[in-house]
Design goal:
Layout (H helix, E strand, L loop, with lengths): L8 H23 L6 H8 L5 H5 L3 H15 L3 H9 L4 H16 L5 H11 L6 H23 L6 H19 L2 H7 L7 H24 L21
Helix pairs in contact: 1-2, 1-4, 1-7, 4-7, 5-8, 6-8, 6-9, 6-11, 8-9, 9-11
């Protein structure tokens, strides 16, 4: 006797949930949070108007899931912690972190990176401080590695400048749409590992020079900006 194998309703439900999530990811990347309505997501996903509430609770809850996916995709905290805890030199740790970032930077359509850019440039009400905190946690991990490499204390503005300088090329590549990049720059036509070799070489050369000048006291002191004064006018 032959029995027909019925499809598990749970499998169907998970497939539908994933389809809605992937559709929302694309639309949020293209239009941002404010301009992506539940109605549009459901229409594009080919599901009924109650599907978002059924599978996620609300559009806001759906967007929170999307933000979690973005953080997981762009070098997640677990990856960062594993690299930081590895029994290797600080230089090797930084190299592995940058290897992970270059893979994300070259990742096809980079929908995750475009949502990350939306949140960094114009934070949504749901992203805001929580999303920024997740990003900063990764930057702090990078800062600890750079502190070990340069000998500059964490919290020193000189070290913060190191973090910005090291990460800027990768974060810039996150934000470039591939269709635009093809007309503007040729960097994405080359193998990511080759481009990353150049970036890492420049990074380490700059860090060594900067750390030496810092250790020798040749860098000017960074002074706090004065707030509450009219631009260019004396107090008197």
């Amino acid at each position: 006797m032959f029995f027909s194998r019925k499809k598990n309703p749970r499998d169907d439900g998970e497939a539908t949930r994933r389809h809605i999530l992937e559709t929302a990811l694309r639309l949020f990347a293209e239009h941002g949070f404010a301009d992506t309505t539940s109605k549009v997501i459901c229409r594009e996903a080919g599901v009924n108007s109650a599907a978002i509430n059924y599978y996620f609770g609300s559009r806001d809850d759906l967007y929170r899931v999307v933000l979690n996916e973005v953080h997981e995709h762009i070098v997640n905290e677990k990856q960062m912690a594993e690299i930081s805890a590895a029994d290797i030199s600080a230089e090797e740790k930084l190299g592995r972190i940058l290897d992970a970032y270059i893979r994300t930077a070259y990742d096809g359509d980079s929908l995750y990176a475009r949502i990350w850019t939306h949140e960094m440039v114009a934070p949504s009400p749901l992203g805001g401080m929580d999303f920024l905190a997740g990003t900063l946690a990764k930057e702090r991990a990078i800062g600890r590695v750079l502190a070990e490499i340069t000998g500059i204390a964490e919290g020193d503005p000189a070290l913060q400048c190191c973090v910005l300088t090291v990460m800027a090329p990768y974060l810039l590549m996150f934000t470039i749409r591939r269709d635009i990049a093809a007309r503007m720059v040729s960097i994405f036509s080359y193998r990511p590992e080759d481009i990353n070799t150049y970036l890492k070489r420049m990074c380490f050369c700059a860090l060594r020079d900067f750390a030496r000048e810092y250790a020798e006291g040749r860098l000017p002191e960074a002074r706090l900006a004065e707030h509450g004064r009219s631009g260019g006018q004396d107090d008197g």
